[in-house]
Amino acid sequence: MEAELIVDAWKNRMWPLVVLLCLGLCTSLARGQERSADEILTELNSLIMPPYDVNRDTPNTDYREQFLKKRHEITNRRADLIGELAKSHPDNPSVADFLPERWETMFNLREDYEGVLNETQDLLKAQPDHSIARYAWQWRAMSAMMYYTRGDSYDPQKMLAAIEDFIKRYHEDPQGSMMLYEAASFHLRDAEKSVAIMRRIVADWPKSGAAREARWKLRQADGIGKPFELEFTDAINGSEVSIELLQGKIVVIDFWATWCPPCLEELPRLKDLYAKWKSQGVEFIGVSLDAPEGDRGLEQLKKFVTENDITWPQYYQGQGWQSEFSSGWGIDSIPCVFVVDDKGNLAACKVGDKLEETVEALIARREAKAAAVDAGG
After folding, report:
1. What span, in angstroms and rounded, lies between the C-alpha atoms of 323 and 77?
2. What is the CATH number of the domain that holds 291?
3. Distance between CA 371 and CA 96 in Å, rounded?
C-alpha cells in the first residue's frame, strides 16, 4: 500500500509527500529487520573463545598474533551483540547477565570510557533498582575516573563525585576505597587533595588493601624534611653506602630496574646530570627493583651497569616489586626519583621533570648557607 502511494505521488510531482512516504517505508523496513532476542542470543552463545594451542606457538609463526586477533574479534562482536540485545529487548532477563561483559570490553579493549559512562548513567536513570545496579555504579565510577582525567575533559570534581556515588551506596565494598586510592595516586593533579584522600582511606577503611597502600604513600608526604634512612652494600663493588656517610652531599635516589623501558630512556639524562653535579657535591644512588637473584636479577643488574658505564652505587633489593625498602616508600611505578638534602633529610619525592630545578635549588641553598657562615666568621 505504501509503495503504491509513493508511485502515485511521484506521478503527480508531489515531492514532499514522496519524501515522507519513503521515510515511512524505510522505518517499516528497519522495524522488520529488528532481530528477536532468541536470534541475538543464539549468535551470542555461539561465539566461543578458541582454546590456546601451545604446540602451534612456535618460532617463525604468527600463531600468537592470529590467536589474539581472533579473541579480540570475538570479544568485540559479543560486545556489539549485547548492545543490540540491550537496545532492542531491554527487558530480556539475559541483558543483566551480559551487560557487565560489554562494559568491560568497552573499558579495557576499546578504551571507550565515555561510552561506558553514558550507558551506565542511562541505565541507572531509567532503572535505579536494576539487578545489576551495583555493577553499573562501579563501571560508571571507573569510566568517570578515566574520562574526566584526560585532556580537555579533565574535571576532578566529576571524577570524585562518581566515586562518591558508588561509596555512598556500597561503603563496605573494597572497590570504593581502591578507586579513591587510584584517583589520588594517578589522576589528581592537586597534591594536597591527594594526601587528604589518602588520610581518609586510612581512617575509613583501616584494614583494606587500599589503606595499606595509602600508608606507604603518606610516608612520602610525611617524610619531607625528616631524616631519610638508607644503608646498603653496593651490589657492584661491595662498598658500604649510607645516607649518614654522605652527609653534606645532596643525594639523588633513583628507583629503577634494567627491565623498565622508561627507566632506560631516562638513563642518558641522569648520566649527564651526574657528570654535571658530581663536582658540586651531588651523589646518585640507584635502588634496583630487578628480579630475585635466582632469576638472574643480580647478574643482569651487574652486566647492565658495567656495559652502560653507570658509576653510582646500586642497592640491589632482590625481590622486585615486593622488595621491602621500595615497597615501604610506596613505590608503585618506576622510574621514581627522591632527593635528599645535604643534612640527610628527605627534600622531595617523585620529582619527575623537576629534578634539575629541585637539585639546583638545594645546591644554591647550601652555597648560600656556606657563604653566610664564611661571612660571619
Report:
1. 42
2. 3.40.30.10
3. 72
Range of the domain at 22: 2-33
Cis peptide before 90 (omega within 30 of 0): no
What is the pTM (predicted TM-score) of this model? 0.72
Say which residue the cell 625498602 belongs to.
325
3-state secondary structure 47-66: CCCCCCCHHHCCCCCCHHHH
For a pLDDT cut of 90, what percent of the chain falls above it? 81
Query: The dihedral of CA 109, 201, 256, 233: what is its sign?
Result: negative
Q: How far, in whole angstroms, is CA 246 from its chain's centroid?
A: 36
| 80 in a structural domain | no
DSSP annotation of 257:
-
Report which secondary-structure segment, H or E, holds 269. helix 261-277
Kindly state the cell numbers that stand for 196: 587528604
Please choose, from the candidates 304, 310, 313, the residue with its C-alpha nearest in 3D space to the C-alpha of residue 283: 313
Residue 261, C-alpha cell as written in the block: 623501558
Number of structural domains the chain divides into: 2
Grid coordinates standing for 300?
643482569
Using alpha carbons, select from 168, 147, 169 the residue that is nearest to residue 158: 147
Q: Tell whether 161 is covered by a domain.
A: no
CB 49 within 8 A of CB 69: no
Do 288 and 314 contact (CB within 8 A), yes or no? yes
Residues 200-215: tens digit of each pLDDT = 999 999 999 999 989 9
Q: Tens of pLDDT along 239-258?
A: 999 999 999 999 999 999 99
Tens digits of per-residue pLDDT, 278-333?
999 999 999 999 999 999 999 999 999 999 999 999 999 999 999 999 999 989 89
